[in-house]
Amino acid sequence: MMMIAKPNEFPIEKAPKVSLFSSIPPVGEYLRGLWTAIRSGILGFYIGLLPGSGATTAAFLSYIAEKRLNRHPERLGKGALEGVAASEAANNAASIGSFAPLLSLGIPGSGTSALLLGGLMMFGLMPGPLLFTEAPEFVWGLIASMYVGNLLVALTCILAIPLFAYILKVPRAAMAPVIVTICILGSYSVNNNIFDLWVMLFFGFIGYFMNRFQFPIPALILSVVLGPRLMTSMRQAFMISHGKISIFFTSSISLTLILITVALIAYPTVRAMIKKRKAAAID
């Protein structure tokens, strides 16, 4: 919809000739995104520990956190290195973090780890605390393969950068039908129900108008994904505490997470007030 409504914002670029050496970022860009990658990696890892959260949730949350904490948030969404580093570091860290509950407790943290759980059970391996003692060579071999896999993926991506540049040559007339077809097949194949197509179209229009009037779309996506899980967890907490809200403040972990959430919500407002006072003082 955005490509049709604003074709000038999606121009067909001439594919630049990118060599292998020129595609490698300079040291300054690595240093600029280093702290962002570390912070988002830690956040993504802990999100990956939560059952059912997945790498997509980690990428969205890390991007939102970076937009709130970055000194120049207006650059994000326009190709800024920090935005890419935040999303991808959290994405990779969440994928690795989902292995912790899978191997130690037998609880899959994402759809991918659920498939791995089925594969392990097919080979007669039961994930859980005993897996580290019954099959230590498999566990530590799997952990070692993650290091090797990350290095191989990084090398493959760097070598393929000159090929990725040609994606810019794909015209909108060819890209838009492919996107629509994939959306239709994907939404229908979940439940084989035509009603899901209408749901997709309805929320497509909602997303278009939210983007048009500059409402944050990631917040809506996260609320749809995490909302039912939040209500289930709150109901369980109230059942444990017999309806007392104090359960959220007596636990040190819960209290810490609440304080972090409040700080992240209040930080942009406080920073804007500080900037306003500094500007008034200068005037």
UniProtKB/TrEMBL annotation:
Top-level taxon in the UniProt lineage: Bacteria
Residues spanning the membrane: 43-65, 114-132, 138-166, 173-191, 197-226, 247-267
Keywords per UniProt: Membrane, Transmembrane, Transmembrane helix
DUF112 domain mapped to chain residues: 24-222
InterPro entries cross-referenced by the UniProt entry: DUF112_TM
PANTHER family: TRICARBOXYLIC TRANSPORT PROTEIN (PTHR35342:SF5)
Protein name: Tripartite tricarboxylate transporter TctA family protein
